[in-house]
Design goal:
9-stranded mixed sheet, 11 strands, two-stranded antiparallel ribbon, 7 helices, alpha/beta, Rossmann fold, 270 residues, 30% helix, 23% strand
């Protein structure tokens, strides 16, 4: 049995979560849809799924992998297999389970601005969609504070963001776990073993640097320079990495425990 990792981009894999899962004895099977790998047609040999981030639109049904991925995620949820969606994966998962996703509205998303040195974006035509990019504060809801997966996570924390789409309406029956100023649904869960997270706890410093190299226009759109982003990363990353590791260890132990493979799974009670 394996934990299936669905990667939509070479620069947005499972990252820190994959490392934690391996540390806890999980065997990972990686499907890279961007490289043409096929989504499995069923759950044979799979005991958990992680759907990762990527630059694609979650509403573009011309992607050949999108419908099969939504079918597989829906199947996993309905059979109570653990499922986690990160960023794009969060959006695809929400859509698969009956939620709605859409583009962020264009707006000024210059975050936590105690920083008078942040440059003002050049005057351009209004963008077609908004962007939440860089370090923004995420706040756990009252429900999120009580969720065992988020135990030990600060009620307010600076998290890394890089997205143009978001979950506008969570799936029916879902619990809202976290929000930010620009994105009302930053984390949600449905049932006992299905979670979606919009921000990027899986990201390493090298991940952020790669995104910066690949999408300089995104930084420009929000009026963020590489120098300011690097400075913010130096400031926030140490606490961010510690909290992310704690979150993923909780997921490895409570959401995706290895003992599920031996028929002695423990229920998570909210």
């Amino acid at each position: 049995m394996a934990t299936l990792i669905i990667e939509h981009s070479d620069s947005a894999g499972s990252g820190r979560f994959g490392e934690v899962l391996r540390d806890h004895g999980h065997r990972l099977e990686i499907v890279r849809v961007r490289r043409g790998d096929a989504i499995p047609a069923d759950l044979a040999g799979i005991d958990a799924i992680v759907a990762c981030g990527g630059p694609q639109s979650p509403t573009d049904d011309t992607h050949s992998w999108l419908a099969p991925e939504m079918d597989l995620l829906r199947m996993a949820h309905e059979t109570s297999l653990p499922v986690l969606g990160l960023c794009l994966g969060c959006q695809v998962l929400a859509r698969a389970l009956g939620g709605d996703v859409g583009p962020l509205e264009p707006q000024d998303l210059q975050h936590h601005r105690d920083d008078a040195a942040r440059p003002t974006p050049a005057a351009t035509e209004p963008p077609e969609s908004g962007v939440e990019c860089g370090w923004h504060e995420v706040t756990l809801t009252a429900v999120g504070r009580e969720d065992p997966i988020f135990a030990g996570i600060s009620w307010k924390s600076m998290q890394m963001h890089w997205h143009r789409y978001h979950v506008t309406t969570p799936p029916p029956g879902a619990r809202l776990l976290a929000r930010s100023a620009a994105t009302p649904v930053q984390a949600w869960s449905l049932g006992l073993r299905t979670y979606g997270i919009q921000y990027h706890p899986e990201a390493y410093v090298q991940t952020i640097e790669r995104w910066t190299d690949e999408e300089p226009e995104t930084l420009e759109q929000v009026g963020l320079t590489r120098e300011v982003l690097c400075r913010d990363t130096d400031r926030y990353y140490p606490v961010f990495a510690r909290l992310a590791r704690r979150l993923f260890e909780s997921m490895a132990l409570l959401l995706m425990p290895l003992d599920r493979r031996y028929g002695i799974a423990k229920e998570i009670h909210h």
